[in-house]
Amino acid sequence: METTTALKHITLDRIHHALGAKMVPFAGFSMPVQYTGVNDEHLAVRNAVGVFDVSHMGEFLVRGPQALDLIQKVCSNDASKLGIGKVQYTCLPNETGGIVDDLLVYNMQQGNDHHYVLVVNAGNIQKDWDWINKHNTFDAQLENISDKMSLLAVQGPKAVDTLKGLFAEDIAAMPYYTATYAEMKGVGLVLLSATGYTGAGGFEIYVPNVLAEKTWNAVMEAGKPFGIKPAGLASRDTLRLEMGFCLYGNDIDDTTSPLEAGLGWITKFTKDFTNSAALKAEKEAGLKNKLVGFELLERGIPRHGCTVVDAEGNVIGRVTSGTMSPSLQKPIGLAYVPKDLSAPGTELRIDVRGKVLKAVVVKTPFYTAG
Q1: Quick check: 211 and 187 in contact, CB under 8 A?
Q2: CA 367 to CA 327: how far, in whole Å?
Q3: Which of 68, 72, 233, 238 is the most buried (most CB within 10 A)?
Q4: 0.90 surpassed by pTM
Q5: Tens-digit pLDDT profile for residues 314-327
């Protein structure tokens, strides 16, 4: 008999239903995919401000004398460069050339408590937890706080105006990829970071579940003068794709090389980490394939799973993400192609539902205005 795992519900589930959100299963959670429509929410974030409930994401705390040693071992980026209050994008390489997950590492201090916060993808929480623990031969203590935390992403050019009245700190002065523990008016202590997955600027607010509703209400109230809208996973996906940001499970996974995925900039061979010798050898031998951005030159919408074909129709690559860009009104996508077809301006052929359409390789990000 087939068993189905019950979907987890995020703390603000009731609020999303009340707002008329379309809820869908995603990474084991019931999540709001859209409220008023993908394009409407996308453009609200690009032009003003939107708020995403991304409480399905996972958070691990790492403490102890060798916390940094453990992070250095499992992560590709060099976390020794992280000062207190700094954030770093990195990935967990596996032992076979692929990626366990991509994640953020926060180096934080609260009173006498120095710790790292690792923020991982919802669908990989258990996998990442097991992987990091397997490699923990260090004096480092791990704590999985994923089920206790909620996360709101306030994104867009009006995000600073929305939030600045809720904090005593000058949040407008926070550099990109920094974080601080701060008192939020009417809420309490939160972890505030100048990060996001939209390319529109903004902040992410981590709070214990008990403070989630207060946080949501405070943000929505403060954003009213700026036209704030709740935004769902669908517009989060179109926003990140316009920036050329990788999505785990689409553009990167257990089988994709971080180097071929364009993540060489977070793969630092100045230290040893899981599979670093093999990845270094791969780099020195020259990459076979590359993840590139492309625009379709003909009518159609590319989707994950479409193939890139040569003149004879042989499959030579694959589309990992694709959409009709709400900002640019063009069909765009990401695809792995042979390295000799990866230069901007190179023509490609993409099979979209049985029709072979012309495309051209373009530089990412696709969207650069603002």
Answers
A1: yes
A2: 7
A3: 238
A4: yes
A5: 999 999 999 999 99
